[in-house]
Amino acid sequence: MSPARVRVLRWALWLLLVAAVHGLAVWALPRVIMRGAMSRLVPVNAAVADERVRVLYPPLTTAASRQIVLPSPDLAYALCVYDLSKGPVDVDAAPAWPGYWSVALYADNTDNYLVRNDVAARSRPVHWRLALSEESAALTTTSIAAGRELVVAPSARGLLLMRVLVADRHHEAAAAAQAQRSLHCVTVP
């Protein structure tokens, strides 16, 4: 084999290796980031009634209490880490908040696959059934309760993030905590 052909072959192998490493990093890195975020935000060893659903209602963010990168001190957060591998999860959120609020769902690769805010919800509560497929939702119950929307998740594990805009931390802190606590994530038997 000629030296020029060997060089071309080496370059081709290097390019193939670089492409494979890049592809693996692009696929794996979001999943690693999300797994770390979910375990850091709502620890796996937290006292929970069901290991498939973990809910956290953190206090308003301060400079000393940051658990995520650059959280907004003007937002009250509520989180739900869920696992749909053994069945659907029902989500209810009724913030009854006069200002901005949103409920967002994230897949295990950090993709945001659904957001509902106060404007889109027209101030009505959110009632979702999260499932991996329409069939799995149908298998666990004969019908979904009236008013509950079926949401087919792209991954078994994910994160729900509810945000409530708090304009005045001193006067609205108690009401914001009540709005946070309106988030409920419950496994479907």
Supply the CATH class: Mainly Beta
**Total helical segments:** 4
Helix percentage range: 25-40%
The H-level CATH homologous superfamily, spelled out, is: Domain of unknown function DUF1254
- The stretches of 5 or more residues where confidence is low (pLDDT under 50) are 44-48
Which descriptor suits the 3D outline? elongated
Largest sheet report: 5 strands, antiparallel
CATH topology: Immunoglobulin-like
Structure description:
By secondary structure, the chain is α+β, with helices and mostly antiparallel strands. It has one domain (41-187): Immunoglobulin-like, CATH 2.60.40. The chain is built from four helices and nine strands. The protein has helices at residues 3-41, 118-121, 134-140, 169-180; strands spanning 53-56, 75-83, 89-93, 101-107, 112-117, 126-131, 149-152, 157-165, 184-187. The strands form two sheets. A five-stranded antiparallel beta sheet has the order 1-2-8-4-5, sandwiched between helices. It has a four-stranded mixed beta sheet with strand order 7-6-3-9. The longest helix has 39 residues, at 3-41. The radius of gyration is 21 Å and the shape is elongated. The protein starts with a helix and ends with a strand.
